[in-house]
Design brief:
A hairpin with a 2-residue loop joins strand 11 and strand 12. About 7% of the residues have low confidence. The longest helix has 16 residues. The protein contains two helices and 15 strands. Strands 1, 3, 4, 6, 11, 12, 13 and 15 form an eight-stranded antiparallel beta sheet that branches. The protein is mainly beta. It is globular, with a radius of gyration of 18 Å.
Amino acid sequence: MNKISSIILMVLFSASMFAQKQELFNGQNLDGWTIYGTEKWYVEGGLLICESGPDAEYGYLGTDKDYKNFILDLDFKQEADGNSGVFIRSNVEGTTVSGWQVEVAPPGAFTGGIYESYGREWLIKPTADKDEALKFGDWNHMKIKVEGKVVTSWINGVEMVSLKDRRIGKGEGAILLQIHSGGGIKVKWKNIEIEELD
């Protein structure tokens, strides 16, 4: 093999390594994550579980690392109320979050839509027909692509929304999972993987 071929192979191998998915949840503990608030976050049977606590307030589990441009894949299963969400480029202090949420909610409550907390509120909701993609009480696959100003979400392979937004484009922060206030919420998570795009 000549020197040029070797260099090309090394570059291709490096690029493929860079594009590989990384596990954000190891199935054993909450290493790499921080709990915000008093709601329950725990690992059981290889699953990450969030559950309302006695305070029935907002709660968050955030990555210790910030992520800018990425593709996030995860599976979730809603039990009880199931009102939750996945925040992108977000920051939290106590239980006050600044950032953008891709909604995880019961049927008819706009799962896959994008909501700006403590700001403009709903930025985009999926159309009513997209709600059929959600399998409440069963496992669902969510995919979120965040690149520059554009955020796109999918549920079980169905594109729910795609939004181009200047403020999101300027956002910096972590990925957060949410427990909504009100009590009675339980959501299970697994296969949380990220592919960084830059």
